[in-house]
Amino acid sequence: MTVFTWKRLFILTSLLVVQMTVASGSSTSPATRQQLADAFARDYAQKYQQPLSQVREILAQAQFRPEIITAMQRPAEKKSWYQYRPIFLTNKRIAAGVEFMRTHRHILEKVSAETGVPAEIITAIIGVETYYGRITGKHRVLDALTTLAFGYPKRASFFRKELEHFLQLAGEENISLTETTGSYAGAMGYGQFMPSSYRHYARDYDGDGKRDLLHSVPDAISSVANYFKEHGWQAGQPVAYPLQASPAARHFAAEKRPQKPSYSWDTLADWGYRLKPGTPVPESVLSPQMRLSLVVLEQPHGKEYWATLPNFYVITRYNHSPLYAMAVYQLAEAIKQAYSKKTDPQGEGT
Q1: Where are the domains of the chain?
Q2: Splitting the chain (350 residues) into consecutive groups of 10 residues, what average pLDDT does each group show?
Q3: Does the active-site annotation cover 114?
Q4: What is the pTM of this model?
Q5: Where do the DSSP E strands lie in 119-239?
Q6: Would you tell me which CATH number, out of the four given (1.10.1740.10, 3.10.450.590, 1.10.8.350, 1.10.287.130), belongs to the domain 30-73+139-199?
Q7: Where would you tag: which of 191, 289, 296, 314 has the fewest CB atoms within 10 A of its CB?
Q8: Catalytic site residue from 67, 109, 129, 172
């Protein structure tokens, strides 16, 4: 074997090692993870005046899960719209959403009246996140947060803060540190709240003295609506409108991150985009003062264009992906339409 071939083999082997490291989801060694955990324990104990031995004992019960980091590197939101949409816009999920709305109609109506957030939007969030509470996650939250806080450098700072919030939350709401399960990112309950969002936006709506997003549907419904209200949901305002592009329309790539509404209808028109014919739009929405964003979605043989309004941007505060926000919006619209067909004007099933 020639020297050149040996060099080539060495390079290929090195690349394979790097790929395996990425696939395993961690660029930190066990020793490094332990050092980071020790530093966190010392900081937490000092900040909250907790015995260091107690914090270390809690962290010692966590298990490092490489598959969690692998999942973080392969989120559904990396898909194209035509691949992402069929995950959530299914007949079964729409029908289950209708059933959820009928079962919890009174709570949804009351919360919607109080917050201005439509019942179908609240339902769609819970439908996209956990299939209406059926799939809330199988990972221990403690494992997920410690794995990401000490073994995922890309977002370690964020997850260390979430771990801190989780330890605080456990004491505040009597949540088990070692038994509570959730998503691979550490999100919990019907609406998949991260610990910080749980602490800041959760509400006790059933009056039992506990903000229980893991088991209480009233608390979950109220908390989702409160999250939207606190992030600026505009009651009675629409979310998005479909557009058509002229042959000479300015080209835009599909957005991976949401943009805050900052354009006018005239700007979109100058770029070559118009409302699809027959789209009913209130005069107030067509106001020159209305701010919009342009969302571009990938289809197999082209692109799909939408004018999105401030309420669409609010949905992206729940999950930053425009794909997610559009899936929630379209699922909500489908549930609303199907629900209206199954319910008479008095609100009783036909």
Answers
A1: 30-73+139-199
A2: 39 37 58 96 97 97 96 86 96 98 98 98 98 97 98 96 98 96 98 98 97 98 98 97 95 78 96 95 94 95 95 97 96 97 52
A3: no
A4: 0.88
A5: 139-140, 181-182
A6: 1.10.8.350
A7: 289
A8: 129
